[in-house]
């Protein structure tokens, strides 16, 4: 007991010393000016909070990055389970892939065929059935949830990649799959949006406008492959720059001044980007580097290994009975839903 008391005393003294050393360091502060607002007024307080929010570091794509990492980790974990692998560094089971260590010595065509064969097997066993086959339920709701997350996640990854590549046909194909998913999941507004898009492209618009509908949805501001973004997202970026530029006018705000600022957006955006590059001003990005992403995936694979394996009578605490949205809506129900919204 005496040793424990002495250790607690030593740890307390070390903590006090660390805090003291930090508190005696000279602090460099930079005045940011004043705001001519009254914090006792609700409208002025909102303006103060909005102004301070500009100094909060923004990581715009972190949610999408986390979601993509989780989906990819589930896909890899399920594939490892099928191939008889307990970790990512292990070779597949010899009964599934004989002489896997010699595969790299084979010709490219042979390795491509082996990869296609294994991919088809994984997809057949571990993905939701997008065709009109009978849905088979199971008592292992934990593994069923992982399969549903992986299958729907693949559709999400396909849709995101189609946008980045500016492939209108792939985007339209994704919307065809998402229509019954939204309709059966109760996402009425998204289902109606998907239905209107498909209806306009396939039946209402003439060929020229139908092509513009699916190919005029993207913009590439960097001039590099795989860097397309939706037009509405680009408009949000321009609106942000416009609002910042108008707020800088101060007391000189007028209709003509704001109009000049709006017309100069095409030059302001590249000017700001070049200025940051010349001054070596780095911006926070929501995309992890490759090494960090691989480390995150290894951690997730360790946690997912027992989850994706076969079990009996397992259920998540929150998602007790996950249901496949593709089989929650029958063909007749989907047909009735379409007829209802056509009229």
Strand and helix layout:
Blueprint (H helix, E strand, L loop, with lengths): L1 H22 L18 H12 L8 H21 L25 H19 L14 H25 L2 H18 L2 H17 L2 H9 L2 E2 L9 E2 H17 L7 H9 L1 H14 L11 H19 L22 H12 L1
Antiparallel strand pairs: 1-2
Walkthrough of the structure:
With 343 residues, the protein is mostly helical. The protein has 13 helices and 2 strands. The protein has helices at 2-23, 42-53, 62-82, 108-126, 141-165, 168-185, 188-204, 207-215, 231-247, 255-263, 265-278, 290-308, 331-342, and strands at 218-219, 229-230.
Short description:
62% of the residues lie in helices and 1% in strands.
**What is the typical, i.e. mean, pLDDT?**
78
Question: Helices and strands: which structural class?
Answer: mainly alpha
Unreliable residue runs: none
Q: Give the beta-strand count.
A: 2
Rg value: 28 Å
How far is the N terminus from the C terminus?
82 Å
What helical percentage do the residues reach?
A: 55-70%
